[in-house]
Amino acid sequence: MLTSGYCKYLHHPENEVLALHCPEGFDLTKAQKELAKSGQLKENTEIQYSKITELEERYHHKMHVAKLNGVVLSIPGKNAGQTIIESAKEDGALAIVMGTRSRSLLQKAFQGSVSEYVLKNADIPVIIVPKKRK
């Protein structure tokens, strides 16, 4: 788990953590238009939004339990790697700590890897925590 690895090896009490989630497939502009037109989200958009909110709540809880000072944000974007780098710059981050997810070689070939993109393009140190193998 990313938070336990971070807490065990890297965290200092004075650190502030920005837990950033870049949801795939959530179109913020579309959601805003739906709200503006009808005052509510369509069912598919509502389901996606609910999943994002649940994830934010889980991470907020994990941060609270681990006594990490900071915030949890979800920022939809077409390029998650670019969104992560831009958010780190805006917040004056000293480093980016991120996990990986298991993807097939075919998926990596066509879609690339967010962690690879961040590693190659960030101007600050990037620490990649591999997914725990079962």
Automatic annotation (TrEMBL):
Pfam families: Usp. Residues 46-130 form the UspA domain. This is UspA domain-containing protein. The lineage of its organism: Eukaryota, Metazoa, Spiralia, Lophotrochozoa, Annelida.
